[in-house]
Batch of 2 targets.
Target 1
Amino acid sequence: MISYRSTRGGSRGRTFEDVLLAGLAEDGGLFVPESWPVIDLQTLAGLDYPQTVARVLAPFAEGCFDEAELLEIAREAYAGFAHAAIAPLRQIEHDSWLLELFHGPTLAFKDFALQMLGRMFERVLERRGRSMTIVGATSGDTGSAAIHACAGRRNMRICILHPQGRVSEVQRRQMTTVVEDNVENIAIRGTFDDCQNLLKAMFADRPFREDMRLAAVNSINWARIAAQAAYYFYAGVRLRSEAVFSVPTGNFGDVYAGYIAMKAGLPVRRLVVATNRNDILARFFETGVYATGEVHPTMSPSMDIQVASNFERLLFEMAGHDGVRIEAMMAGFRETGSIEIGGMERSGLAGLFVARRVDEDETARTIRAVMDRHGYLMDPHTAVGFAAGQSLAERGYPLVTLATAHPAKFPQAVRLATGVTAELPDHMKGLFEREERCIVLDNDLSTIMSHIRSWSH
Ligand SMILES: *Cc1c(COP(=O)(O)O)cnc(C)c1O
């Protein structure tokens, strides 16, 4: 059975269930498996998407869920997706494919993991006779996917903070129109960073955390990342070839899921780390220096990030699984805002990860060119991945770009680039007529905490 440890070495021998509920390790590190399973590709041939998820997750979740239970969860989780294949692979050019991950209820790839996570939480809480309060901060996509995954589920409440006026209307409505007793939306008079700081402060307040049984749903949760490894397998098995995957990246979660797939037996030629103008990761893969900069707003806002929270998992691999060293590196990072990794340590992964930054002009040009050439409307995040992938593809290997959002989720950017208005899919047609429920609060910790307290009782 696979057990889990913290990247910082403080906790070891944890079960999948511990890791699922805890999110972050007690020492502030991220959970990683102590060993890797080997998934036999032959056993994946001919499986549909839920079956693939169950088979891929089973070795990681052993002791908590078996494959049959995972299949039950996955069947439910993906039942509401608007495409029969759930994650269709669409050929766009010779040897170039798009893996469409936006057919879920909130039109971005985050539905893939969160629809599973909400149901896994529900089952574990039921078994333990416990309840919990999920709190999260969002700049758009995570919040809506998490709300849709947890609304109406037993033993949990979910409260999402978003910066007032700083998420798109589609993103806001996808959160605020979910009217369920266990869902609370708070718009903060402040920025996304303010929301994140409020969240950190709530988790750091031990009495509040324990009293409210706080839980997190951000992308550092191991179960979330592991669930995403499934679509890499699904694509690889369908193409029957080692492939280059190009992944539009922010928190390094989705592309790290590709690394998990490779560690668990999927032949992967390359993982392209595609960033927008917020290029901390692209700079790292070029220079070995991981240094934060200022966050610039772009047309691919879900990647406007200058500290990639999952990156610690890759550092852990590069540092030879030395938790003490990671602890020291992260402490240094908090002080100076930078980490440097030598060429020797990077060389082990240098052939696998390649990175490229795509600026705003190139993103818009890519959306337009793909529309002109193929009549296909791409969202700006996908366009970043597609542009980076095209320039880092390798002859003889299929290029698979992860299409992470539906173009209708970012209609303005798409319209500016092409003049075409992206239509919302049928299941979302009523979005602009539905009633919204949301409370606006000041960026003040005690106000927020007392609000959450009274809402939850
Ligand atoms: C969250 C998100 C990303 C970035 O994913 P990470 O796992 O943070 O790297 C890319 N595209 C879209 C549409 C997203 O919502």
Target 2
Amino acid sequence: MLSTNTLQQFQTPCYIYDTELLARTLQAIRSELKAHDNYHVHYAIKANSNPQILQQIAAAGLGADCVSGGEIRAALAAGFPAKEIAFAGVGKADWEIQLALESGIGMFNVESFEELEVINQFATSMNLRARVSFRINPDVAAHTHSHITTGRAEDKFGIAKEDMLRAIRTAQQMPHIEFTGLHFHIGSQILDMKDFRQLCLCINDLQSNILDTAGIFAPNINVGGGLGIDYEEPNEHPVPDFKAYFDTFKQHLQLRDGQQLHFELGRAVVAQMGSLLTRVLYVKHGHQKQFVIVDAGMTELIRPALYGAVHQICNLSGEARMRAAADPHAEDKTMPVCEYDVVGPICESSDVFAKDIALPETFRGDFLVIRSAGAYGETMASQYNCRALPTAHFINKQP
Ligand SMILES: *Cc1c(COP(=O)(O)O)cnc(C)c1O
């Protein structure tokens, strides 16, 4: 626990990253991978692309999953081997395809015939062979927020199952394309293993009824990411249940001999290691409600405004006052708990971190932490309202 004195050194708002928890999380993944030598994990760079975090993840031996040329550059700079990079995305620009080819990435996850055509043109003119997997839309509806489900027929991602065979045949006829396998990604923040089981059953069906019948071997099956984390009780579950996750695939996915299985975990790797530290500017006493107005807003952490996401919020200064009051020698033992809306300073009504939450009585200058903010926090920060981007600090314990 960082003391409120230690916190004084930080300019708020800022991200605080716990490298010890990241190390423990990576260790948990590695020990699961030891049991499965044909499993590979690619970290989804978009969850958090802070260079120091990327270096720590690359050093642990994970590959990278990129969705832009900028992410490919960030991954290479952090030390991820090019061969371990997968490049996904519905709208790959020409320069991004060229960069990926020049760098010699492991595979493109191709999302349309139109994109395959363009990759083939560039590979031909560069006299290279592009390794291509097809992202297939499995039409599986994951039980998560509708903005972060990606595998339904109506979502913009991937190639329809009905078109899979034609896509593979087309690729096999292109001399500068090497068909490397199939890719799927059904959504994010998925906690119900039944959703992943459903994905496995869909892949089994595609393999038995389409690939086997056509005599096609897919060397790689990539099941994407999406494993969720516990936003409500981060202290109880700091490291996600990777065993249950990998075991679901072990149990339900029927791999062919020699087939490699790839995962693209983002949130599950980095969410719990990050907190957003913020200070209270004002406690505004309204007629219906009391507002804790903090110096962080949707510009630093957009998830609550964008998806209605829930993050645990703690008033570290208030908790320190409560501990002091619990001391047998303390004079004042009345430490009320109040209900507040915690809001940011941005000129948008959706700039709200939480409504009607209980906090120790809160005052101007108090330090609050918004927990589980390591994924899709710093990477989604913006400069709206001419604000500065948040800084990041590294510690080896949660604040
Ligand atoms: C976003 C994304 C991921 C990572 O998702 P998480 O929910 O953070 O694990 C993996 N693969 C693809 C293709 C993605 O777009």
